[in-house]
Amino acid sequence: MSTERTPPSERELWQSLATAPAVAPAAVSDMDFAAWLEGRLPEAAAAQVEAAVANDPAMRRAALELADILGMPLPAPPPRLAVRAQALVGFEAEKQAPRKSWLAGLFPAFGQGFGLHRGAMAGMAVVVAAVGFVLGGGLGETYAESKYASTAAPTIPKPFGRDTINDLNDLFSDNT
Amino acid sequence: MTELSQIDLQSLAAGHKRTWDAFVVAASPLINAVVRRTLANYRLSDDDVMDAAQDVFVRLCANGFRLLKTYDPARAGLSTWLAVVSRSAAIDFARRRRQATSPIDDVPESALAVEDRHVEKLKIPEGLLTERQTLILKCLYDDERDVAEVAQLLKIDAQTVRSTHHKALLRLREHFKEEAP
User: What is the mean pLDDT of each run of 10 residues along chain B (181 residues)?
Assistant: First the structure.
């Protein structure tokens, strides 16, 4: 009778062994994990990542899935994804922009040169006001003169009764 | 369409809208694929998956592009780094929403097996196997992956995986044969 035991199958052998290391491997950063996936790490650093991946089923699964995805053609994403993602940065930029006045909001076309426009408009307004003042002064003088002329021969209303009596006296004296 | 490798990273990290838009167009297929694959076992709606992908972009540009600025082009390609970041973000998203569920057929038998606590497993001594040998044996036996998948992961050919596997088993057999009474 042979005493030689049948060697266990490879899987059975592996499953009969405890593989957890005494000390848990250090955590792996995303950057290190990516470098390892690309095979860019030096041997010692790669061994550290491999120990961590071997010890963590979730990391093994991540590594296998990512290696698979990165090695195959990618399907087109839904167009909505890009539209929404692009809006993220535009929105931020708008939030960082200084607040505009309500007038600038009404006339967005003025934009950056609006200060210059405002200065020019103010200057024009001053010129118009000055011309208006000069013209307005001339008219005032004319008005004052005409008023003075009219007050030189005033038509004072006669009190009722006396005028009538005087007029009657004149009438009678003329007749006499 | 601009490729990811053509994106001006300085301009992107500075928050230039045009560069960001080009980056989004270039990165969307990868981020979408990684997020969908990662969340395949979570019972999430299409809208939730879309939100998870959007969450990756939010993370990238949040706090003045802080996450994006941690990327080092000298160490890894942008695609690989983005894939890693997208997967982490998707898992965080799913944890906030729901628990993962896996079809029972997809789970390796070893994960479902109820361990007999009375059976004491033999410990593999420190240093008997290299980290790579341990990783290959775990992928093949614990995760039930095939040799081609492991070769793709480790960027080596299938024959090298087989030979590393063979050498690892020889070492184990040698060691435990010596130990056996």
Answer: 86 93 96 96 90 96 94 95 97 81 66 62 84 93 92 94 94 80 56
**Chain B residues with CB inside 8 Å of A81's CB?**
28, 31-32, 50, 53-54
Q: Which is nearest to B112 in space by CA: B147, B146, B142, B149?
A: B142
- From the CA atom positions of chain A, what is the Rg in Å? 52
Question: Rounded distance, CA A151 to CA A156, Å?
Answer: 10
Cα separation, B126 vs A54, whole angstroms: 14
Helix (H) or strand (E) holding A17: strand A17-18
Average pLDDT, chain B: 88
pTM: 0.67
Residues in contact with B60: Cβ distance below 8 Å, sequence separation at least 6, in sequence order: B67, B68, B85
Q: What is the token pair recorded at A64?
A: 């296998």
Of residues B122, B137, B124, the one with CA closest to residue B169:
B137
Contact at CB, A81 and B123, closer than 8 angstroms: no
Interface test with B, best of A14, A43, A49 (most B CBs within 10 A): A14
Q: Phi/psi zone of residue A111: left (φ > 0), alpha (ψ -120 to 50 degrees), beta?
A: left
Do B87 and A62 lie within an 8 Å CB cutoff? Answer: yes
